[in-house]
Amino acid sequence: MVPVKRYKDLTPAELDKLFNRFGEDFSSIMINTVVPIVNDVKENRDEAVKKYTHKFDGVKLNSVTATEKEIAQGHKNTPKHVLAAFMEARQNIEEFHRRQLRENSIYSRPDGTILGTTYQAIESAGIYVPGGKASYPSSVLMGVIPAQIAGTKDITVITPPNKEGKIPDVILAICKELGVTSIIKSGGAQGIALAAYGSDSVKKSEIIVGPGNIFVTAAKTYLFSMGIIQIDSMAGPSEVLIISDDKSDPKWVAWDFLSQAEHEERALAVLVTTSKKLATEVNKHIKEDIDSGRGRHEIKKTSIKNGIIILADSIEEAIDFSNKYGPEHMEFMVDNPLEYLDSIKNVGSLFLGRYAPVAVGDYYSGTNHILPTGGAARFSCGTSVETFMRRTTFQLLNKESLKKAQGPVNLMSEYEGFDDKHGGSVNVRFEK
Question: Is residue 414 among the annotated active site residues?
C-alpha cells in the first residue's frame, strides 16, 4: 500500500525529494495567471474581483463583501451546538495566545546611553480561509484571534463563496462572534489582491496570513516581493510526520496518517518507526480504509501515493530524520516524550505522546494550525501573536555617550568609505 523503506537504504535522490519537497515551480502560474490578475485588481479593484469570481467560481457577486444581513443570517442558521464547540475552542486558543504577548524593554549604560525595544500591532490584517474542496471555519479562529490579541484594529477575512455565491454559515457565525465585519467573498489571487490593495469596500491589509492553493500562495509571494504586504509563509500541501515505537496501536497511527491524507490530493503523510511489525499493521489498516470507500475516498487514494513508511534503527535516528525533514506537524508517539524535547528541532507544531493526534491541535487545544510547510519549519514558525506585531528598537544618547562613540564610529565609517558624512555627522556635534 504505502511503500516501506529503511532510512539507511534511502538513496540520495530519495532523500533529496523528501528534504527539499517544496520545490513546486509555480513561476509559470505566477507570470501567466497571477500577476495579470493582481494587476487587474490593482487597477479595477471590486469590479475585477467580481469578474474573476464569476470566471473561476461561476458566481456573480452583487457585492465583494458580506453584508451585515448575510452575517446575521449565517449566525442564525448555524446550529447552536456547532457554534458552542467552536467557541469552546476559542477560549483555549485565546488562553494559549495571550501568553505570547511581548513586553517592551528598556535599559541604560553607565555612559548615559538608553536602549530598548517596543512592540506595536500591525494595524490591519487579512486572514485567508480556504474553501473549495472543504470549508475551514477553524482557520477563522486561528487567524483572527492572535491578530486581535496583538492589538490589530482592522481585520478582514478572505474566503471563496460556494456555488450559490454564499459564505458558509458557520464561517459567518464565527466572524460575528469575533466581531469581524469585513469579509471578502472571493478567494484565489483576486481575493488576496483586493485585501492587499484595498478598495472603497475593503480596507488595505498590511499583512495577509493563512493557507491556500497554489494561486493564493503565488499571489501572496508576488505581493510580498513587491513590498505591498507582509505574509506569514509560502504555504504548500499540508503534511504530517509520525514517529512511533512498537507500543503504539497501529490503528491509531493509521488513522492519524489518513487524517492528513484526506486533506487534499497533494497532502503528505510520513511514518517513521522502529518497528517493522507496526509498519506492516499500519499498512493493513490503511488498505482496509481505502478499500472501504469511506469518507474522502478519492482524495485519500491519491494522496497516500505521496506517503512513505520509514524504518529507523532507533528513536534517535527517527528524530534525526525529522530534524532534516522539517515537518509541518510532527506526532511523537513514544513513552515519556518530554525527555526527548530538547533534541527535537525544526517542527511547525509538535504533538507529544499517544493521545495527541494532529486533529486536536487543528481544532481545540489552543495551539495554532497555520504552520510552515514544505520543510520551512527549518527556518520559520507558525502563526502567533508576534506574527501581527512590529518590533522597533530605539536609542537615546547624550553628549557624553556620543563622545565615547566618536572614535569607533569614525574608524568604522572610514573603513567602509563613509567617513565624510557618517563619521562627520558625529564630529559636527563637537565642533566649536
Answer: no
